[in-house]
Amino acid sequence: MRGNQDSALGLPNSELATRYYADLILSLWTMFPFEKLDVWKKSVNFAEEILGFIDGQIHRKDAFSLGEQLRRAVISVSTNIAEGGGRNNSKEKRYFYNVAKGSVYEVVSLLELCKRRGYLGERSHRDFYLEAEELAKMLSGLISGNSLNPRNS
Prior knowledge:
By secondary structure, the protein is mostly helical. It is built from 5 helices and no strands. The protein folds into 2 domains: 1-30; 33-152, 23S rRNA-intervening sequence (de novo design (two linked rop proteins)). The protein has helices at 13-30, 38-57, 60-85, 90-116, 122-148.
């Protein structure tokens, strides 16, 4: 290995640095404001977990009714946060953040049904429940903060 190369990638250090900074600058320029929200990031991760559960656990007979309803509800959380983040006044933002919070509640209800139908064990249900609870609290904070911030009006 030569001293002027990155050991992991085999690229010259200057080329690696150039790529790194180019990617960093591009990410800063192309990031939508909602992508900076921790609640949006958490909601996307939560959706990935729930979608993985649906794909791996929901029996074919319930796949359309229960599985698809759960799928729509969990996807609705992050998409409504994103849509609210794109609005220019606090009333519109609050509306979409409240819809997102309502979708979290819907997910909780559907997860209870999954547990009762034997698709979800007690521990997994509790883990999902706690994640949903944290999302709901984060959304409540976002809603309250947004309603008190006159710059968002």
